[in-house]
């Protein structure tokens, strides 16, 4: 089962493709008036009355973000794939927390991608195929101290058995897309893959 998770970023700049819509707190403002399955949060950033099939109110003081609780809820109802929207504008610490939801989803057995008009973010744990345009850019960041990219296709700079370290990231930044199908396979570790759309 697929679902859309709408976060409280400044803008929702692409259409939602999924039928099941789950909002984390203020993300509801992006879809107010649409059929929403669930709204989850402490509602500290929501200025309008929420309307959904399910409303889950969280305490203001808590040790979990609204987005994290929304991922847990997705797991509880059997969601297997999540597209995360409205994740990448606003406070930088919130953007990083939003991208970290990809790791939480993975740990829960859920496939996830963060989507926006200008960039998508993926968690690479084995292999990944991305539909891209020639002239786009791909950047790869190790999630841990390092990771090893086994191979890739559709990128200008070769990545065969390429070790990327979090203290030497230049080798993973801004690789030019030269084919409409980009394939990346990882040998060791996990990585965040950013698809920058031109």
Q: How many domains, in number, for the residues? A: 2
The CATH C-level name of the largest domain is Alpha Beta
- Number of discrete helical segments: 2
Helix content: 10-25%
Global morphology: elongated
The helix-and-strand class reads mainly beta
CATH T-level fold name of the largest domain: Rossmann fold
N- to C-terminal separation? Answer: 31 Å
Order of helices and strands: EEEEHEHEEEEEEEEE
Poorly predicted spans? none
Strand ordering within the main sheet: 4-3-2-1-5-6-7-14-9-12
Quickly list its features.
Rossmann fold; ten-stranded mixed β-sheet; four-stranded antiparallel β-sheet; 2 helices; 14 strands
Describe, in plain words, how this protein is organized in 3D:
Strands 4-3-2-1-5-6-7-14-9-12 form a 10-stranded mixed β-sheet, with helices on one face. Helices cover 14% and strands 36% of the residues. The protein has 198 residues and is mainly beta. It has helices at residues 66-76, 92-107; strands spanning 2-6, 21-24, 38-41, 54-57, 81-85, 111-114, 119-124, 127-131, 137-142, 146-153, 162-165, 175-176, 181-188, 191-196. It has 2 domains: 2-117, Rossmann fold; 122-196, Rossmann fold, CATH 3.40.50.10240.
Quick synopsis:
14% of the residues lie in helices and 36% in strands. It is mainly β.
Write the layout of secondary structure elements.
Blueprint: E1 2-6, E2 21-24, E3 38-41, E4 54-57, H1 66-76, E5 81-85, H2 92-107, E6 111-114, E7 119-124, E8 127-131, E9 137-142, E10 146-153, E11 162-165, E12 175-176, E13 181-188, E14 191-196
Parallel strand pairs: 1-2, 1-5, 2-3, 3-4, 5-6
Antiparallel strand pairs: 6-7, 7-14, 8-13, 9-12, 9-14, 10-11, 10-13
């Amino acid at each position: 089962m697929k679902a859309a998770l709408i976060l409280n970023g400044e803008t929702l700049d692409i259409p939602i493709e999924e039928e099941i819509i789950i909002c984390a707190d203020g993300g509801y403002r992006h879809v107010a008036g649409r059929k929403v399955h669930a709204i989850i949060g402490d509602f500290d950033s929501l200025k309008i009355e929420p309307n959904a099939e399910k409303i889950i109110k969280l305490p203001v003081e808590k040790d979990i973000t609204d987005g994290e609780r929304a991922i847990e809820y997705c797991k509880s109802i059997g969601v297997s794939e999540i597209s995360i929207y409205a994740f990448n504008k606003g406070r930088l610490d919130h953007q990083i927390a939003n991208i970290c939801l990809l790791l939480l989803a993975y740990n829960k057995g859920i496939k996830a991608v963060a989507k926006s008009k200008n960039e998508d973010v993926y968690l690479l744990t084995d292999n990944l195929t991305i539909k891209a345009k020639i002239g786009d850019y791909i950047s790869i960041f190790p999630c841990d101290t390092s990771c090893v990219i086994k191979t890739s296709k559709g990128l200008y700079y070769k990545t065969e058995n390429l070790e990327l370290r979090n203290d030497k990231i230049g080798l993973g930044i801004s690789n030019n897309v030269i084919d409409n199908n980009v394939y990346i396979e990882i040998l060791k570790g996990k990585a965040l893959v950013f698809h920058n759309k031109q």
